[in-house]
């Protein structure tokens, strides 16, 4: 850059400013790239840690239900099944309940009641997951074992206490197997799913409520003017308008449920077994890692890392879909 | 009466009743959880919680875990805040509407709900394993590693709030400063971040609330320690970790201690969320 003696001072200042500007820009960009590095690093570190397991077992790792530290043979099927089953149960319960809450808060409730209930639910979404886990372990699982489980096994399951099969267990396929269990405690796949559901209800319902509020009022008013009922407006106007974002919110909840460790570990019973019954204990990817990692070595540690890699990839894909779906509504609004 | 009309009326009444029921059921379960935490926690509150360390077991308290939690959270927030604020500033001021900026904003949203246990394993791989190799000794878990793991969880929260808050700052402020010849870095540091200060603080408080209950990433990083540790290079206990350990213990006295710890964490988190809400609502009023 040419310099002229007469204007040296301002010139130098401009150069200095430009230099600072460049440095500042690089600093900021570096910090932003750390976000990228964290995601790539987490995927890379678990893949690297699990390379031995992937190399030893290959594709067999994904489909084998054997997890035997004694013989050093590991397969991911049982924890993968536990993760998917608990998350699926959680969604099955949480989605309709969250939809009900969101409809109530955006269409039905008196206006003065909406904000307090919504903020109470949002506050509760911040409660640490280990609290949900403790409540599940000490309060809900015993309650379930005493009051709900006997009814389920006797009326729906194929292993009732008195040995007499109920009509449902005899005539409806699968139901008997799903609810048959002679395990005496509450901790089970079903209880873990219920606790997860309670944990993700605040997430899903606040996303749904937020997107329901983006529906233009004139759209709803036109429907009301044509004589629609509140339910018809919710189901035929609000839901179609926000469909992609609602699916996004559900996937966001699913992402949470899949990766959740503490709420599940306490109430899953930590049993490395594949059982058709929802009332039997099981394990999930995250709780297997939490329970075994500190004492594991060699191939077992590598297998746990490989499990973590699987979990990370699956949640990444689920969350990716969630964000893309949520973004679609935002672009509709021209944001 | 017209049957179609009647059917629609009934369907509507049914749906409204169900939505009310869903809200009541949801709130009831959440209230149940909160109530049990309060009841069991208050029942187990005792002065020894704050004066004795966990090495005494049933007769001990949680002092070293509370100190450990404070140290680890402090490290986590201390690392995540500068990085997060600068990264959020880059997204809002320098990379808004660029391809790289949009992708990082998008990936940050994913990192926001990535499984925390995987973050723990990541930090285990990049910090605990190398330092073990350095010391040639047993696995060197440390409070510092725990802090880094928590920083990774706090980071996306801070990035997102900073980004959002800066984008709310009116562009006339930027134009006014730039027209006076202020370089952009000075404008960013001295004007924009100041204008968005309360929003950014809210983000940091929310991030603190988020990490103070995290358990999974601490299990393989800070590990746990029955004695008092203040040096972040040592193994360190933390409240969530000790809750996890005591809740899995068969003894009832241990369960009471776990409930007391749970109560302390829940109160801390609820207070932080309330405080951040208050700050945010106050600034909204002052801007109007």
From TrEMBL, chain A:
<dbReference type="GO" id="GO:0005315">
    <property type="term" value="F:phosphate transmembrane transporter activity"/>
</dbReference>
<keyword id="KW-0592">Phosphate transport</keyword>
<feature type="transmembrane region" description="Helical">
    <location>
        <begin position="80"/>
        <end position="105"/>
    </location>
</feature>
<feature type="transmembrane region" description="Helical">
    <location>
        <begin position="304"/>
        <end position="326"/>
    </location>
</feature>
<feature type="domain" description="ABC transmembrane type-1">
    <location>
        <begin position="80"/>
        <end position="322"/>
    </location>
</feature>
<dbReference type="GO" id="GO:0005886">
    <property type="term" value="C:plasma membrane"/>
</dbReference>
<feature type="transmembrane region" description="Helical">
    <location>
        <begin position="26"/>
        <end position="48"/>
    </location>
</feature>
<keyword id="KW-0472">Membrane</keyword>
<dbReference type="GO" id="GO:0006817">
    <property type="term" value="P:phosphate ion transport"/>
</dbReference>
<dbReference type="InterPro" id="IPR011864">
    <property type="entry name" value="Phosphate_PstC"/>
</dbReference>
<dbReference type="Pfam" id="PF00528">
    <property type="entry name" value="BPD_transp_1"/>
</dbReference>
<keyword id="KW-0812">Transmembrane</keyword>
<keyword id="KW-1133">Transmembrane helix</keyword>
<keyword id="KW-0813">Transport</keyword>
<comment type="function">
    <text>Part of the binding-protein-dependent transport system for phosphate; probably responsible for the translocation of the substrate across the membrane.</text>
</comment>
<feature type="transmembrane region" description="Helical">
    <location>
        <begin position="245"/>
        <end position="268"/>
    </location>
</feature>
<feature type="transmembrane region" description="Helical">
    <location>
        <begin position="183"/>
        <end position="204"/>
    </location>
</feature>
<dbReference type="InterPro" id="IPR035906">
    <property type="entry name" value="MetI-like_sf"/>
</dbReference>
<keyword id="KW-1003">Cell membrane</keyword>
<dbReference type="InterPro" id="IPR051124">
    <property type="entry name" value="Phosphate_Transport_Permease"/>
</dbReference>
<protein>
    <recommendedName>
        <fullName>Phosphate transport system permease protein</fullName>
    </recommendedName>
</protein>
<feature type="transmembrane region" description="Helical">
    <location>
        <begin position="117"/>
        <end position="145"/>
    </location>
</feature>
From TrEMBL, chain B:
<dbReference type="InterPro" id="IPR005672">
    <property type="entry name" value="Phosphate_PstA"/>
</dbReference>
<dbReference type="GO" id="GO:0035435">
    <property type="term" value="P:phosphate ion transmembrane transport"/>
</dbReference>
<keyword id="KW-0813">Transport</keyword>
<feature type="transmembrane region" description="Helical">
    <location>
        <begin position="256"/>
        <end position="280"/>
    </location>
</feature>
<dbReference type="InterPro" id="IPR000515">
    <property type="entry name" value="MetI-like"/>
</dbReference>
<dbReference type="InterPro" id="IPR051408">
    <property type="entry name" value="Phosphate_transprt_permease"/>
</dbReference>
<feature type="transmembrane region" description="Helical">
    <location>
        <begin position="106"/>
        <end position="129"/>
    </location>
</feature>
<dbReference type="GO" id="GO:0005315">
    <property type="term" value="F:phosphate transmembrane transporter activity"/>
</dbReference>
<dbReference type="InterPro" id="IPR035906">
    <property type="entry name" value="MetI-like_sf"/>
</dbReference>
<feature type="transmembrane region" description="Helical">
    <location>
        <begin position="141"/>
        <end position="159"/>
    </location>
</feature>
<keyword id="KW-0592">Phosphate transport</keyword>
<keyword id="KW-0472">Membrane</keyword>
<comment type="similarity">
    <text>Belongs to the binding-protein-dependent transport system permease family. CysTW subfamily.</text>
</comment>
<keyword id="KW-1133">Transmembrane helix</keyword>
<dbReference type="GO" id="GO:0005886">
    <property type="term" value="C:plasma membrane"/>
</dbReference>
<keyword id="KW-1003">Cell membrane</keyword>
<feature type="transmembrane region" description="Helical">
    <location>
        <begin position="70"/>
        <end position="94"/>
    </location>
</feature>
<protein>
    <recommendedName>
        <fullName>Phosphate transport system permease protein PstA</fullName>
    </recommendedName>
</protein>
<feature type="domain" description="ABC transmembrane type-1">
    <location>
        <begin position="66"/>
        <end position="276"/>
    </location>
</feature>
<feature type="transmembrane region" description="Helical">
    <location>
        <begin position="12"/>
        <end position="35"/>
    </location>
</feature>
<dbReference type="Pfam" id="PF00528">
    <property type="entry name" value="BPD_transp_1"/>
</dbReference>
<keyword id="KW-0812">Transmembrane</keyword>
């Amino acid at each position: 850059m040419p310099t002229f003696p007469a204007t040296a001072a301002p010139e130098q200042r401009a150069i200095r400013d430009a230099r600072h500007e460049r440095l500042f820009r690089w600093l900021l960009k570096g910090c932003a790239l750390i976000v990228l590095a964290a995601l790539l690093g987490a995927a890379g570190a678990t893949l690297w840690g699990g390379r031995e397991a992937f190399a030893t077992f290959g594709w067999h790792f994904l489909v084998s239900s054997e997890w035997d530290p004694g013989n050093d043979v590991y397969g991911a099927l049982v924890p993968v099944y536990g993760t998917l089953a608990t998350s699926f149960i959680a969604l099955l319960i949480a989605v309709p309940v969250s939809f009900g809450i969101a409809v109530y808060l955006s269409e039905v409730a008196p206006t003065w009641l909406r904000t307090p209930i919504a903020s109470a639910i949002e506050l509760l979404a911040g409660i640490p997951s280990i609290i949900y886990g403790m409540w599940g372990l000490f309060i809900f699982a015993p309650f379930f074992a005493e009051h709900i489980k006997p009814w389920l096994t006797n009326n729906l399951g194929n292993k009732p206490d008195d040995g007499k099969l109920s009509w449902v267990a005899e005539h409806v396929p699968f139901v008997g197997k799903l609810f048959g269990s002679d395990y005496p405690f509450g901790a089970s796949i079903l209880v873990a799913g219920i606790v997860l559901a309670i944990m993700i209800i605040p997430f899903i319902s606040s996303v749904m409520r937020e997107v329901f509020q983006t529906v233009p009022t004139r759209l709803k008013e036109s429907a009301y003017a044509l004589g629609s009922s509140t339910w018809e407006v919710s189901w035929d106007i609000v839901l179609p308008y926000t469909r992609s974002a609602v699916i996004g919110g559900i996937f966001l909840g699913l992402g949470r449920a899949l990766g959740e460790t503490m709420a599940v570990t306490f109430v899953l019973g930590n049993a490395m077994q594949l059982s058709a019954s929802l009332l039997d204990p099981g394990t999930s990817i995250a709780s297997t890692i939490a329970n075994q990692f500190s004492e594991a070595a060699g191939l077992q540690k590598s297998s746990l890392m490989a499990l973590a890699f699987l979990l990370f990839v699956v949640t990444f894909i689920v969350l990716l879909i969630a964000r893309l779906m949520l973004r679609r509504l935002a672009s509709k609004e021209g944001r | 009466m017209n049957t179609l009309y009647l059917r629609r009326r009934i369907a509507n009444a049914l749906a409204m009743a169900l939505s009310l029921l869903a809200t009541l059921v949801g709130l009831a379960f959440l209230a149940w959880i909160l109530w049990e935490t309060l009841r069991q926690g208050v029942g187990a509150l005792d002065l020894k919680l704050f004066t004795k360390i966990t090495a005494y077991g049933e007769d001990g308290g949680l002092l070293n875990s509370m100190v450990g939690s404070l140290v680890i959270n402090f490290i986590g927030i201390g690392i995540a805040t500068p990085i997060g604020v600068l990264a959020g500033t880059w997204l809002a001021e320098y990379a808004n509407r660029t391809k790289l900026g949009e992708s990082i904003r998008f990936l940050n949203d994913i990192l926001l709900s990535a499984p925390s246990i995987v973050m723990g394993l990541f930090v285990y791989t990049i910090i605990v394993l190398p330092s073990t190799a350095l010391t040639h000794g047993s696995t060197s878990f440390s409070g510092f590693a725990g802090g880094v793991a928590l920083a990774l969880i706090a980071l996306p929260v801070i990035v997102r709030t900073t980004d959002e808050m800066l984008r709310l700052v009116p562009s006339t402020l930027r134009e006014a400063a730039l027209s006076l010849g202020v370089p952009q870095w000075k404008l960013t540091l001295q004007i924009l971040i100041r204008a968005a200060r309360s929003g950014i603080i809210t983000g940091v408080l929310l991030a603190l609330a988020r990490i103070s209950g995290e358990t999974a990433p601490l299990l393989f990083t800070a590990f746990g320690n029955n004695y008092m540790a203040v040096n972040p290079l040592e193994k360190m206990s933390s409240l969530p970790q000790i809750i996890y350990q005591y809740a899995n213990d068969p003894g009832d006295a241990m369960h009471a201690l776990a409930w007391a710890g749970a109560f302390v964490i829940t109160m801390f988190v609820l207070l932080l969320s309330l405080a951040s809400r208050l700050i945010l609502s106050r600034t909204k009023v002052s801007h109007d």
